[in-house]
């Protein structure tokens, strides 16, 4: 519980940087914890872990890419795939190796790299186009993922 609550602290400090996928993922984790800890009967353990069907994965990825701002609810993506939010989150992770909100952030980074390489847009413009709340948010996430700032990454690629 402390770790899940800790995940929400940055969102509470900078609510403009939060996205629906992340909030939905943490809420689902909290629900799962409460069910496992306090439910009277325990569901049977499943020995198999299947991912999404190819069409579901294509649909989910397309919806996430079309909403790089993260303002699409996990439940809506799951509904489009014809499954529950809990099943979708688990199956998406099985299929891609990463949870939906992390996959979204990776897509933002990849899109920003394309803009950095092939356009003269400012870092602020790229940040907004890729779904980041501002240039500071973009720089923090990009630096953590890539190991260097967007400006430095752009300079290295242009040489």
Name some characteristics of this structure:
70% helix; mainly alpha; globular; 9 helices
Q: Count all strands and give the number.
A: 0
Rg over CA atoms, rounded to whole Å, is: 18 Å
Beta strand %: under 5%
Summed up, the helix count is 9
> H/E element string?
HHHHHHHHH
- Helical amount among residues, as a percent range? 55-70%
Shape: globular
Low-confidence spans: pLDDT under 50, at least 5 residues?
none
Main pleated sheet: none
Helix/sheet category: mainly alpha
What's the structural blueprint in terms of helices and strands?
Elements lengths: L1 H12 L6 H19 L15 H13 L7 H8 L3 H12 L3 H19 L4 H7 L5 H12 L3 H9 L1
Helix pairs in contact: 2-6, 3-4, 4-5, 6-9, 7-8
Write a compact overview of the structure shown.
The chain is mostly helical. Helix content is 70%, strand content 0%.
Task: Give structural notes.
The chain has 159 residues and is an all-alpha fold. It is built from nine helices and no strands. The protein has helices at 2-13, 20-38, 54-66, 74-81, 85-96, 100-118, 123-129, 135-146, 150-158. Helix 7 (123-129) crosses helix 8. The protein is globular. The chain starts with a helix and ends with a helix. The model has no long low-confidence stretch (mean pLDDT 86).
């Amino acid at each position: 519980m402390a770790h899940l609550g800790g995940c929400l602290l940055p969102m509470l400090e900078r609510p403009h940087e939060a996205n629906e996928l992340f909030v939905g993922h943490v809420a689902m984790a909290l629900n799962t914890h409460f069910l496992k800890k306090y439910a009277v009967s325990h569901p049977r353990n499943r020995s198999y872990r299947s991912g999404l069907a190819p069409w579901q994965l294509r649909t989910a990825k397309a919806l996430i890419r079309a909403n790089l701002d993260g303002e699409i609810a996990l439940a809506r993506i799951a509904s489009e795939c014809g499954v529950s939010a809990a099943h979708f989150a688990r199956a998406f992770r099985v299929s891609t190796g990463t949870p939906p909100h992390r996959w979204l952030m990776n897509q933002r980074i990849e899109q920003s790299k394309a803009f950095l390489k092939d356009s003269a847009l400012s870092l602020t413009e790229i940040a907004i186009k890729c779904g980041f709340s501002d240039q500071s948010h973009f720089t923090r996430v990009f630096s953590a993922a890539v190991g260097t700032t967007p400006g430095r990454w752009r300079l290295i690629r242009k040489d």
